[in-house]
Amino acid sequence: MPAPNLPGQVVQDLLYCLGLGVLLGLVRLLFPYRWRLAADIADFVCVGLGMILLQSYAVGMSRAGVFRWYMLVSAGAGLWAVETLFLPMRQRLDRKTAHRIRKRQERPRPKRKKHALSGKKHKKQLQKNQRVLYNSSV
What we know:
The chain has three helices and no strands. The protein is mainly α and 138 residues long.
């Protein structure tokens, strides 16, 4: 059975895991939300990265050396806080960018001016009658 943590050590673990959760939330904001596959991949990467970071923290830095339930809760709280605070701003920014792109695509392009060939007016060259060749039997 692992050694019990003191209250000061528990608070330290909570703060570090909260920081890891905030870091994961910021990484999660970098991935796109619009496409389902990209969001699934981002969730998979963030969950895997979170578990690796929490396990390595628990083994290396925590006094007990064991992964505890409050570490996961603290990291989840940090992730939730970032999602709650920054996701609406991210979505608003995405909408503005999409609106600008749509507006740019709808804008009519300026028409090019046709260049005059030259000062002369060119006449149509009609087909001339064939001349009879010298050695022709026709």
